[in-house]
Design brief:
The chain is globular, with a radius of gyration of 16 Å. The strands form 2 sheets. Strands 2, 3, 4, 5, 6 and 7 form a 6-stranded mixed beta sheet that branches. The protein has a two-stranded antiparallel sheet with strand order 1-8. 27% of the residues are buried. It contains 4 helices and 8 strands. A hairpin with a 2-residue loop joins strand 5 and strand 6. It is α+β, with helices and mostly antiparallel strands and 184 residues long. It has a domain of 119 residues: DNA ligase/mRNA capping enzyme (D-amino Acid Aminotransferase, Chain A, domain 1, 2-Layer Sandwich), CATH 3.30.470.30.
């Protein structure tokens, strides 16, 4: 579903908004179908916003708390993005060897101080280089976001998506999760 976050317009001084309240997912019985729908994998991690303002990079929780100090390796990884200012919506997650995210591994990484192993999956771009992109359709925001993450940084990934075919996408994602078992 295309999300249109409530956010200020373009910034005269080029600075991104301090914080943008995220739109959260809704549980539904059936995946919607049709060309107007974008489907993405649900990552099992922490919803996190990356706010980049020159050299000042912050990782903000979905409630607006600054957790940058907890994830210094992710902050350092975000420094390689070719942007002056940006506000990126994503998920910080631990990835198992089979490529599936696991919340228990995220918690263990935090407990053991191994947060440098976490991956930031970017799925939306709400502000870029002085311009609010929030009013654009989601697919256009994703088109602007993807090139930023083609830098080969192993801890930064663009979240792929599928347009339409919601029921088939859900069936495939569900069968992959069952075949791979739980994190155990």
């Amino acid at each position: 579903m295309a999300r249109h976050p409530k956010t200020p317009g373009n910034s005269a001084d080029g600075h991104p908004p301090t914080w943008i309240e995220p739109h959260l997912t809704r549980l539904v019985d059936e995946a919607p179908d049709g060309p107007g729908w974008v489907h993405e994998i649900k990552y099992d991690g922490y919803r996190m916003h990356a706010r980049i303002d020159g050299g000042d990079i912050r990782l903000l929780t979905r409630s607006g708390l600054d957790w940058s100090h907890r994830y210094q390796a992710t902050v350092a990884a975000l420094r390689v993005l070719n942007v002056q200012s940006a506000y990126i919506d994503g998920e910080l997650a631990a990835v198992r060897p089979d490529g599936v995210t696991a919340f228990s591994r995220l918690q263990a990484a935090m407990d053991d101080g191994r947060t440098g192993e976490l991956v930031f999956f970017a799925f939306d771009l709400l502000f870029l280089n002085g311009e609010s992109t929030a009013a654009l359709p989601l697919i256009e925001r994703k088109e602007r976001l993807e090139p930023l993450f083609t830098i080969g940084a192993p801890r930064l990934r663009f979240s792929e998506h599928v347009i339409g075919n919601g029921p088939k996408f859900r069936e495939r994602e569900h069968s992959l999760l069952i075949a791979q078992g739980d994190d155990g």
